[in-house]
Write a structure and sequence with these properties.
Largest sheet: none
Helix content: over 70%
Structural class: mainly alpha
Low-confidence stretches: none
Mean pLDDT: 85
Radius of gyration: 21 Å
Distance between the termini: 23 Å
Amino acid sequence: MNKKISIFRLFLLGLFIRLLAILPATFQMTTYAQGDPVTFARTAEFIAAGLREGVLQYPEVTHTNRLWGTFLAPFWLIPGPSAVYARIILAIFGALTVYNVYVISQTYYSHRAGVYAALPMAFLPSHFLLHGTLMRDTLLIFCLTLVAQLIIVPSNQKKTSMVAVGTLAFILAYILRPDNVGIYIFVSGLGIFFLIWGRHFDNYPFIVSGLTVTLGTGLLFTALSLTPRALSEVLALRMGRAQGTATYLAGYHPENVIEMFIVSPLLAIFFLFVPLPWMVNSIPAIIPSLEGFVIFIYCLAAVASLPVILNSRHRHTAFPLLIGAVLGIVFYGLVLTNFGAATRFRQMFTWVLFIFGGIGLAVRVDIRLFDYSSDNSDSRL
């Protein structure tokens, strides 16, 4: 089967299931469609009402609600079910994210690796249910994967247009989630470093990767320690999320930056895999718990892919991508104590694990999915 046709089928399946997810989101039948999405819709409607009168007005809501409400407001200028229009567009962005993840992993290794990477992006319930709502996360993750795709995947397009699109996507990602600016800057700097000097370290990939991870983690906690209010801000964020029945480690509060550094791996593990089996306290919590198991499998596969990646010609882009995900997971592991929020926030980084996990699975698992022919076009990093 032609591989372009097979990934197109995967894209269509991902889009179809996201469009189906619009129905429960419309009637607020899932937790992803409750709370913030309702406020976003009301804010967008309020702003659109002012625009019809030639006035830019905002309700008394947070900066985030104003910002995302402004993005959504044009849909409320269109006659008909405005919220449905917005959800359809976001569902398309979600499906395009599936394609971005596929093409990155395919470029790194093979078609099969791309399919393995795209499968959880397409079919994990937390992904397609979120992409059927009015949450900004859908557009954010699309922008992140688009920037990575434009940098990693060879293209016949003009460089100026690619740079313009990539820059716009990068700026939009910052606007949508400014909390990640430190990670964006570090990954960008690391990417530039490897672009200029990376070939000098071609004979020492494991050493360089180890030093880079150590440096990145050290810089993260050095920045925290040099900021007088860092610890209190982390504690405030943790306590702000420690609400409801979906909390974990809510009573734990690190006393200093050194303690944060020591416990950060454990908190990162919780962030990635919650709710763990003993945390499941309701039927709806079973699904994200099973998703945590899927992420765990892909993490193991990603580790198995490291020897292939570190000895590949693509290591100069793979390093920053993987390390950026690790830093993001560590940071959000420090501040989150609610597995409802964790299942949403970790999607900003799990797509990277799926990319490398897809490679690890492709190396060891030979299942012909969306391709009935042999996978002979492996780029074999």
